[in-house]
Amino acid sequence: xxxxxxxxxxxxxxxxxxxxxxxxxxxxxxxxxxxxxxxxxxxxxxxxxxxxxxxxxxxxxxxxxxxxxxxxxxxxxxxxxxxxxxxxxxxxxxxxxxxxxxxxxxxxxxxxxxxxxxxxxxxxxxxxxxxxxxxxxxxxxxxxxxxxxxxxxxxxxxxxxxxxxxxxxxxxxxxxxxxxxxxxxxxxxxxxxxxxxxxxxxxxxxxxxxxxxxxxxxxxxxxxxxxxxxxxxxxxxxxxxxxxxxxxxxxxxxxxxxxxxxxxxxxxxxxxxxxxxxxxxxxxxxxxxxxxxxxxxxxxxxxxxxxxxxxxxxxxxxxxxxxxxxxxxxxxxxxxxxxxxxxxxxxxxxxxxxxxxxxxxxxxxxxxxxxxxxxxxxxxxxxxxxxxxxxxxxxxxxxxxxxxxxxxxxxxxxxxxxxxxxxxxxxxxxxxxxxxxxxxxxxxxxxxxxxxxxxxxxxxxxx
Length: 463
Known about the structure:
- Belongs to the 2-oxoacid dehydrogenase family.
- It holds the Pfam family Biotin_lipoyl.
- Residues 180-217 form the Peripheral subunit-binding (PSBD) domain.
- Residues 6-81 form the Lipoyl-binding domain.
- Keywords: Acyltransferase, Lipoyl, Pyruvate, Transferase.
- Helix content is 22%, strand content 23%.
- It is α+β, with helices and mostly antiparallel strands.
- The chain folds into 3 domains: 1-159, CATH 2.40.50.100; 172-220, E3-binding domain (Dihydrolipoamide Transferase), CATH 4.10.320; 243-460, Chloramphenicol acetyltransferase-like domain (Chloramphenicol Acetyltransferase), CATH 3.30.559.
- Strands 12, 15, 18, 19, 20, 21 and 22 form a 7-stranded mixed beta sheet that branches. Strands 3-6-8-1-9 form a 5-stranded mixed beta sheet, with no helix packed on it. Strands 5-4-2-7 form a 4-stranded antiparallel beta sheet, with no helix packed on it.
- Strand 16 and strand 17 (336-338) form a beta hairpin.
- Helix 5 crosses helix 6 (350-366) and helix 5 (290-304) packs across helix 7.
- The N and C termini lie far apart (66 Å).
């Protein structure tokens, strides 16, 4: 087979609105023989790390991107030349070189694949947004500029047509349509108020690349004030990537849009710890964590104060309540802070909830959670006590309207009747969206949770 018979696979749509991913490691090398659905690269998105399987089998002839490089969805990832006598997945003879870009809107195919119709030799891959079988709709083509990173582009067939402009980006530059392919480039331009119609693309056929937008951003940046001190020697710029950058954007949006307030209360945790000891003694093979008990108390509070299990529709100025509770919890991982979600937490027993929290936490630390497991939460619990701190005014996980915080449990003097005794005391905090509720609702919810911590048997009965 010649290079003209090669197939170039592009980074697929990874779901959850993700537009890019960082290459963490290559699992194959140029010259390797690979099979259909064999993982070829590990990439890290703003949500999680995933292995990307190839929809093609054959000999690897090109890896498009270095470890640590950020690749946009739709950009070339790997080029494969089928072995002699082999056809593409689905039993068809290999076509000329092409760069395929899955269309996530096509929906599941007849064989249950994601984004393409199935066939006799269809891929079993389930990565969001693509499948190896060919549907009846044509695949889209995307081309990288010659001046961009070292990645191969389509060499056979006619050149790719320019992308259509986004609304509000202008329709033409002279008589030619604006050539903006990457969703990352479009988003970057929008965030900095740049009209891409005014840019001269440095890519092939005038394609507007990320470096073109970056150059305009730097050109428009204000000059340092006269007399301002020079940059401190020895400083280093560290770009935010993956989960860290996603969290930074998420928290910034929360601060911009949500008028939050915080209430807090100290609680004697003696009753909760005694209950936990009894539960774990009764079933040591199914232990219950402190976080699971606090989460169970929060679920009881949400049943009584449903306004806190909701989101605020800014466009319509409406409160949207959720019947189900999809419980998020903050988890610190080597890749940064993430918020795994336990779906349908309200329907779980305390032991089931504890097990699910533990499983999600371990998966988050290992970086194997799917993007869908890191979104869609309706309420969040943050156990910052694991960092050895007593309290914190946490930032609400947008678009939710409240977050419950739990500090460390510390022995302190506590008034019991007429005596002062040492007791395990925990500080609970609730940050809430003041558009959604007032201090009465927030205080009522937090007081209920604190009462559960102090007298769990009385309030919860049989767990």
